[in-house]
Design goal:
The protein is α/β, with parallel strands linked by helices and 122 residues long. The chain has a single domain (7-120), classed as 2,3-Dihydroxybiphenyl 1,2-Dioxygenase, domain 1. It is built from two helices and eight strands; from the N terminus they run E-H-E-E-E-E-H-E-E-E. It has helices at residues 15-26, 78-84; strands at 7-11, 31-35, 38-42, 51-56, 70-72, 90-99, 103-109, 115-120. A four-stranded mixed sheet has the order 1-4-3-2, covered by helices on one side. Strands 5-8-7-6 form a four-stranded mixed sheet, with helices on one face. Strand 3 and strand 4 (51-56) form a beta hairpin. The radius of gyration is 14 Å and the shape is globular.
């Protein structure tokens, strides 16, 4: 087993708003589909790495409680954090060094009310 996690889903109250937010802060295109009555916005993947989706449907509720997902911040997570507030999110932990070996993290509340984090080595 290379990864303990292979998929994640981020609940959305307003699907279009959430897709716009994550596309803007991560600088990626998000493919939208409906599956089994659930709206899904798929993050790009090459099929070999952990990925996930923005979801809106029965049983999905945005929250600041519970599991915390760390998104890949690329070369420097500050780029992502700089886009959060410009896209109506809220940075709650600025770029903070974990250790020289483990890199940095930051946390934010997305437009849906989910607490999320971002990580990078620089």
């Amino acid at each position: 087993m290379n990864n303990l996690i292979n998929w994640f889903e981020i609940p959305a109250a307003d699907f279009t708003r959430a897709v716009s937010f994550y596309g803007a802060i991560l600088g990626v295109g998000i493919e939208e589909k409906e599956m089994f009555g659930t709206k899904m916005g798929f993050f790009p993947t090459d099929g070999t790495n952990v990925s996930g989706a923005i979801v809106q449907g029965e049983g999905y509720k945005p929250s600041t409680d519970g599991v915390l997902a760390y998104l890949n911040g690329g070369n420097d997570l500050q780029t992502v954090l700089d886009r959060v507030e410009a896209n109506n999110g809220q940075v709650i932990v600025t770029k903070t060094q974990i250790s020289p070996e483990m890199g940095y993290f930051g946390m934010f509340i997305d437009t849906e009310g989910n607490k999320m984090a971002v990580h990078s080595l620089n």
